[in-house]
Amino acid sequence: MSFDHDTVTGFAKSFGLFYLIAMSIGVIVYAYWPANRKQFDHAAHSIISDDEDRPCP
Amino acid sequence: MFNFHYRLERNAMGLVLAIVVVASIGGLIEIAPLFTIDETVEDAPDMRVYTPLELAGRNIYIREGCYACHSQMIRTLRDEVERYGPYSLAVESKYDHPMLWGSKRTGPDIARLGGKYSNEWHVAHLYNPRDLVPESKMPAYRWLMRNSLKIGDLGEHLAAMRAVGVPYTDEMIANATADAYGQANPDSTQAAGVTARYGEATNVSLFDGKPETLTEMDAIVAYLQILGRLTDVAHKTEQASVE
Amino acid sequence: MIQGTWIIQRGGVGMVALLTALERTYAAIILVFVICVGVAMAVAGRGDLMAAHGWIVALFGMVVMAVLLRGIDAPEPWEERFREYYDDPTKVGIILALIWGVIGMFVGVWVAALLAWPDLTFDAAWASFGRLRPVHTSGVIFGFGGNALIATSFHVLQRTTRARLPDQLSPWFVLIGYNLFCVLAATGYLMGLTQSKEYAEPEWYADLWLVIVWVVYFLIYIRTLARRREPHIYVANWYYMAFILVVAILHIVNNLAVPVSIGHAKSYSLFSGVQDAMTQWWYGHNAVAFFLTAGFLGMLYYYLPKRAGRPIYSYRMSIISFWGITFMYMWAGSHHLHYTALPHWVQTLGMVFSLVLLVPSWASAGNALLTLNGAWHKVRDDAVLRFMMLAAIFYGIATFEGSFMAIRAVNSLSHYTDWTVGHVHAGALGWVAMITFGSLYALVPWMWKRPALYSARLVELHFWLALAGTVVYVFAMWNSGITQGLMWRTYDQNGTLAYSFIDTLVAMHPYYIARTVGGLLFLAGAVVAFYNIWMTISRPAPVDEGAAADLPVEPPAPRAWAQAGE
Q1: What pLDDT, on the 0 to 100 scale, is given for residue C10?
Q2: B88 vs B74: CA distance, rounded Å
């Protein structure tokens, strides 16, 4: 396979699209995966809990 | 306990890897093809490199931040071509390390400034722009007239440029200092070497009007006079339609 | 002021005393090394501007060494320190950010004035527009923004992981080392040292130094995350991490250059022409994305929910927008090169991704505003929270405008004009500075254990100065940019261009004055902020230590404004 300009741009144009779609699906699945819900809720609330301002021992 | 920590660390490193992969692929896909672009870029066999004096002038242009207000990139738009000249081609800046395309036109584009005005005009304009253009916003660069030009190390500059891909010959590098002096002093013995090495068309001239000293003004004017004239490929090729 | 000096002295010794003897020794070794490198630069760069920088490096090292030596004999810190977070670098970072902010904004007003009255250069090379402009841009982006990012990231990182920073030396190395980079950058521009790459102007040795600093910064993050006591990494840290990692990639690639010699400050960029242009704007646009957006979104996702006392509206949305921003920004840089010699397909790609980018951007802005939904009374009463809300609004405006301007046809009008400058400042003043001031106002009383800021009224004053300044500035630039863009392309009935370039420049003059006024208002606000925070710090801490420990995490609502609003 030769690395001339047309080949490289052709690859960039086609692969880029697949990569974009796969990546979007992956992120949405991760964000909405039911089992992840609990840890997301916990994380969202964790910063505003009124614990004292100290590191865990 | 060990497992617990191990899992935590792996997650953090996983996040790091994911960020790096996701972020770098975008840039890679877009930029990588540009490095094979030479195959598609216009050919300019007549193109010459910057002379040592012009390169010194270019470095002054960079030092003073001129690129913040002047672009050197005429876009493929009708009004720009009519105002400034043929639109810029990629090949025209192939020896520009770094490029100075610019991003803002507080002053006009100067991609094709070379030869448009006389040396005297440039000297007077740089000394105080408002003497010639009363409404101008450009700073007065009087110190360029006062500062003598540093030419002793220009050979090293040329060598560094060669290291990044500009075809300077050993002879050009060895004679860089003499050539810089000769280009600004047409009556000196060094002047002949400049045209021998950089071509008959090279602008050998008393740029700042003063023969005795080599000032930064000499260098910057020499640079401004070469803008758009390293090759005339843009004037020769049929320009595609502009928008 | 005498009181202030006393605080610096006491603070300096106190902060050194908290380092262990081993850390003090390492610090001394590093400083000796820095001083030696500075002297070596001064010797190698004889007759070149690098020598001046060598002396600056050496002097910088000596000043830090002097601070260190004052406390070098302090007794070993007690073990109790491990029960507290390590906040000294954050405190110093906040102050440095404010100092750089005032300097950077002052120079900004100066360069704005230079465009209205160009003779303010006074025939001094260092005071010319081209040399001062990067002092302004680097001063506000790297000095103000960067220090604020480092300071807040150390704070957020510890709170969200519930772990103390891994050691006490490396955060200082990052903070002080980073400021050495900023000093080299700013002094270099004044002397005429620049690579001419916008927002990446510092020369090769400063760039190398920043790489070292940045690696240590990254290691602090990773080491603290490895020690974390929360299983899930809070999303603010994702943004800070993206900021650190991607800025490292961008910085290294865009600054590849060959120095003239080891004794020359000047270098020649590895790339040329069209490749250099694409690399530069890939860097330039993503510096906006990962320095000025991702980092400050990290701030937003922590300080806004914290101050409002409400969790982020949708945590899932914040994850989706994070990956959207991380992925798509990287493609958008080429919209800076529409209609240039860059291949057409790359321009189109940049445009398309810039448009899609609006989705994750608005998801972030909407997420922030929806978090405040139901707490509008707090926004009304608390100017600090209002800073954050305004930041989210301006973030939404600026990202919409950015996507719009990336459309080729729009860009043909807007590019090279003041519209771009106006857009950048809508983001920089409206988004970056507002979220920073909001976060710092929230953070200062927590860090110095004060019940509240010195004056809530001054925060209120700052809010209105900042808003007025931003609006005046942005409207002036919209007007001047669109006017000039249209004048450039106007033809008369004979089919020739109607205006000379100078005609269009004359038309800019009133807007340049208005812009200077807008900038001056914003600068005045920053000075008020500096005074208010300084007074908060220098006011003695509450006398009763026991009572101080019982203070609520949340500072009480500022009373002065509550009354004024009724």
Answers
A1: 63
A2: 5
Which of B3, B19, B92, B161 is best to mutate for the C interface (most C CBs within 10 A)? B19
Say which residues have a Cβ less than 8 Å from residue B180's Cβ, sequence separation at least 6: B51, B52, B53, B56, B149, B151, B154, B214, B219
C316 to A27: CB separation less than 8 angstroms, yes or no: no
Report chain B residues touching chain A, CB-CB < 8 A. Answer: 22, 25, 29-30, 32-33, 36-37, 39-40
Alpha-carbon distances of B70 from B106, B138, C18, C65, C203, rounded to whole Å: 7, 10, 52, 44, 22
Burial of residue C164 (number of CB atoms within 10 Å: 0-12, 13-18, 19+): buried
**Which of B11, B68, B161 is the closest to C133 by Cβ?**
B68
Q: Splitting chain B (243 residues) into consecutive groups of 10 residues, what average pLDDT does each group show?
A: 54 88 79 70 84 98 97 95 94 95 96 96 97 96 96 96 96 97 95 94 93 93 96 81 70
The tens digit of pLDDT for each residue in C510-525 reads: 999 999 999 999 999 9
Average pLDDT, chain A: 82
Tokens of residue A18, six digits? 């697949």
- Best of A7, A28, A36, A53 to substitute, by most chain C Cβ atoms within 10 angstroms, is A53
The answer, for A43 touching chain C at a CB cutoff of 8 Å, is yes
Q: Which one of C310, C319, C327 has the shortest CB-CB distance to A31?
A: C319
pLDDT higher than threshold 60 for residue C294:
yes
Domain borders along chain C are 1-83, 84-561
Is residue C281 less than 8 Å (CB to CB) from chain A? Answer: no
Residues of A with CB under 8 A from a CB of B: 3-5, 8-9, 12, 15-16, 19, 23
With CB atoms and an 8 Å threshold, state whether A23 touches B22. Answer: yes
Where b means 16+ CB within 10 Å and e means fewer, B52-75 reads bbbbbbbbbbbbbbbbbbbbbbbb
Interface ipTM above 0.95: no
Nearest to C265 by CA among C123, C55, C59: C55
Tokens of A11: 């690859």
Q: Measure the CA–CA gap between C462 and C526, rounded to whole angstroms.
A: 7
Residues 155-184 of B with CB under 8 A from C: 156-157, 159-161, 163-166
Whether C170 contacts C219, CB under 8 Å:
yes
The Cα B236–Cα C554 span in angstroms is 71
d(CA C9, CA C71): 10
**Which among C91, C152, C175, C246 has a CA at the least distance from the CA of C435?**
C152
Instruction: Give residue C340's region: left, alpha or beta (phi > 0; psi -120 to 50).
Output: beta
Chain A nearest-CA residue for B39: A5
CATH architecture assignment, domain C84-561: Up-down Bundle (1.20)
C206-239: pLDDT as tens digits? 999 999 999 999 999 999 999 888 888 999 999 9
**pTM value?**
0.93
